[in-house]
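Tutorial sheet, problem 5. The two components below are modelled jointly, 436 residues in total.
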Amino acid sequence: MDLYTYWRSTAAYRVRIAFNLKNLPYQSSPLHLVRDGGQQLGEAYQQINPQKLVPALRVEKGEILTQSLAIIEYLEEQYPDPALLPATTIERAHVRALAQNIACDIHPLNNLRVLKYLTGPCGLSKEQQTQWYRHWIDEGFVALEATLSQNSSAGDFCHGDNPGLADCCLVPQIYNARRFSIPLENYPTLCRIEKNCLALTAFDKARPEKQPDAETAS
Amino acid sequence: MDLYTYWRSTAAYRVRIAFNLKNLPYQSSPLHLVRDGGQQLGEAYQQINPQKLVPALRVEKGEILTQSLAIIEYLEEQYPDPALLPATTIERAHVRALAQNIACDIHPLNNLRVLKYLTGPCGLSKEQQTQWYRHWIDEGFVALEATLSQNSSAGDFCHGDNPGLADCCLVPQIYNARRFSIPLENYPTLCRIEKNCLALTAFDKARPEKQPDAETAS
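Model answer (structure tokens):
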């Protein structure tokens, strides 16, 4: 399978972790989201994904899948072992909700196209852009911290003692928060889970700085 | 089951459609998102959903589920007939991606809390807020229109000739676009599917203006 990715894309990072947790091989097809005015915006990639976003996945039959959570659910259905979702319908709903807190209500507000639109057409300053970024991280992380610290089903990971779908979303989002120097001391449970995740090879191998297209400049 | 909802919330609207498509009964527990400074922001509701967003669902065992797509996937697993997702893993991935285009990449940018933040802390004018709204609708709808008009698996509905998960997301998003007077003539496929959906009782009963908490003022 062929993953259209960018080293710093947190949505692509989620999918890389899922591949690694399932011990599935994939080929990286990196796109540079800044160079050439954004390679994801070019005609060639629009034929692959009309949304002009990474990741996209070309599966073995040649079909293209888009949207990181849909791709991970595909991997879960196609390659169920090890599972990234728990066994019961209620538990699965809880884990999906944690993932969607990040994938629907934090990340889309803070991704590259939105940050560019704020300082471009909206005319905000760099400082206002950073305040915006921090506001939506805090909104989401306060709720996640409350949910995970009060929820008896959280363990070493977001759900129990095995990493899963919610962890695939949490670790990239914390990476992104650190990149923007967001203080994280109010989120001890999130940071504890992040640490447990990054101790695993599956997460470590998926880190942005370990990707073939990683750059050393910040 | 008890659905925390607001008549105009498009995320709650998705879940109402899913309940109706599955012929499942539910109780409405309306919250007013504007009155009292926003009832979803109060202490009582934060105990139910720390994210302070609707919808949330209290299921029969008393557990609370959040996030509209996680709730719909729960209903799909618990009450599989009629199905809202297709039979094959590839088709399921496509339908989930359509739903996530809306639920991750359009709606979260345009919901109430974000629109308020733009004219509040960001200091944008009402006109800039409207441009923002329209920009993200167009970004998402252009991609959806391209995908659905070129995709041979779209039929009367987003996938084939039976309504499903993607339709549960599309119809509320178009409702919201109309509310903000967004021109829709460039999206004939989306409008055709919307019309087919709204001809069904399941969608019609879920319309905002048919909810117990609907108001006549615009």
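Marking note: Chain A touches chain B through 49 residues (CB under 8 Å). Full credit if you identified this.
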